[in-house]
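ESCALATION

Customer reports they have been waiting on this structure for their group meeting. Please prioritize. Original submission:
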Amino acid sequence: MSKTPLLNWIESNRGKNGFGESLVDLLGFACAEWLRRCRGRVLSKEAAFYIFLSSHCGYDVGEWATHPEDYAEEIADFCEKSKELPLPEAISVDFPEYLDLRGVVCPGNAVRARLALAGLPEGFRIKIALDEGSPIENVPQALVADGHNVVFREKKANFWEITVVKRGSM
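Update from on-call: job pushed to the front of the queue and completed.
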């Protein structure tokens, strides 16, 4: 069985400077193209990535984006599937208003929250579920440092929920 051009690219570029960032870009473009092909919706790679990130579609794009070098082959497989398969039923083209990051360890939860907010329109309000301890301490600080507004925090049974408003243009 011959390798795809994408697998050849991965093989020849693994370990090079910027390889991980290129994989994350590739993942975002694949998400955007899959949504365009199946739903006719043209979105930025960031917005499309957020839609996949916040759904339970069977693809762990959040983990892949947090550690892209470790999942290069899975990202390549996802990109190939995005060219042919129907969109998973769990995927909606609307921006979900809830992101569950419980169980995601630091710093992965902050990375995923930042990636999610990058894909949202200015002024969008989102609720994010976070574990107690480091996540509720670090994630809101990271988002505020990026210029977003954390407008509400609420303690639930065994986790926290924060409400964040996406920053405007700077």
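Sent to customer with the following note: The first strand starts at residue 98 and ends at 100.
Escalation resolved.
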